[in-house]
Write a structure and sequence with these properties.
The chain is mostly helical and about 140 residues long. The chain contains 8 helices and 2 strands, in the order H-H-H-E-E-H-H-H-H-H. It has one domain. About 70% of the residues lie in helices and about 5% in strands. Helix 1 packs antiparallel against helix 2 and helix 1 packs across helix 3. It starts with a helix and ends with a helix. The relative contact order is 0.10.
Amino acid sequence: MDEAKIEQHLLDEIHVKSTVFAKLFSKVVKYEDIKNEFCKWLDSRSYDYDNQLAINGFSVKKIHEMAPFLEGIGVYDFLATLRDDPEEAENNNEGKVQTIIIFFARKFAKKLRICQTKDVLVFFTTIAKKCSKKK
């Protein structure tokens, strides 16, 4: 049931492409506790609840506060990535928005292989600045 809810969200609500769907879906359902937390978010659309899972000092609430440009699946994808790659998390656990921006810049630059990390970092920094101005 939970996996069907996640699938519906990814395909019907946010309309991810099939190639991206497989990666996001497998990442968020890989760990039962992360999958359950994501389902809580799907039900409430809130990051504010008791007894949050924390990985390497990051809870979903903290991740979203640090990077408000991340929404839903991005927050939980990052949480799963922290579990998959604790070394990277340990190196970047500064408690700043730049931590997540740099993390995602590196991650996407490696996956896309169509641009340099610097270009992706500029892109994410621009998004972060625009999101900060909206608040």
